[in-house]
Structure prediction request, 346 residues.
Amino acid sequence: MTDVRDYAGRWLPPSMRTSHEALRWWLETLYAPCTGADLFCELRPVPTWEQNLAKNRGADPLRIWWPIGTPEQIGRLADLTLRTDQIVGRRKSHRTGHPGQIYYAVQPRRDKGGKKDDVQGFVAVYADLELRKGGVEPSHAARSLSTLPTPPSALVWSGNGMHAYWLFDRLVGRIDLERVEALVRGIAHRLQPLHSDPAVKDASRILRLPGTHNRKRGEVAVELLALHPGRRYRLWELENHFPVPSAPPVAPARLQLTALDFDAPEPVWIGQYHPSVLRHLARCRGLGATDSALDVEARRCAALWGRRDRVSEKHALSVVQWMRGRPVGQPRRRRLRPPARYTAEE
Prediction:
């Protein structure tokens, strides 16, 4: 009988892509750097109506943390994954009406937590290619990935797209969190022609496992297309081939004042700050305005609003100081209030 491991470095036949052996092979290869460590893999079923009910009552949604320190534990994790996928597939969410699905956290956890702070190390980086959404054939995507200087170590068909993995040759420490997340952004930027999802960039990302099912639109099996256990890379090696995209240029400090909503109904005041001033100055800050530029913009707002008897220059300057996160320089400051005829009660 042919073993699934005989297809290392080649495309698996369709009959083996969703098998228990393929899933176990993938988990053992992915978590090989974690052998002997006290780490966990998180399984996360999507919310069903029972989980939503428990969450509304204050309980945590269903999550499973399984140790991955030995091959025996990984084998039991594969069994648990397939059984859980069958169970949640028979139950539907009361919110969407779709059957349940199951995901897993790629990076190992140090404790029973699903946030970025609970990630202990990194075993791989990945990219989510939305091929069906972009109209790209899987064969074309596979050929394009194979021509990269550092081709991916594994390809997984997710039901609507493809997950590409680059395995590390060792467990990368948590101290390199920012470098790993920057590398994932660089990979997504490099693979934009294959419709890589830029939102898949955080260290706590959950993806689909081979052998489970994608039930968003019907029921499509998640398949392990190819696995190259010998393709393992160092962090600096991948960083050289997938540089981080440069940040967009910062707008100049001189900004043009946008039109304020003077003709709207009577404004609703938020404390002592007017929403129109806050929105405009927040846009200026987002465009890269300095503190001095914000002072100029605040005075211009006050000059325009002064003609309509809406706000004073002192009020606008207090908004600027509030955005900076520090109080106005005066040790004792009278609380500014809007004119009585412009209060929220009206």
User: Anything to note?
Assistant: Residues 71-89 form the longest helix (19 residues). The chain has ten helices and eleven strands.
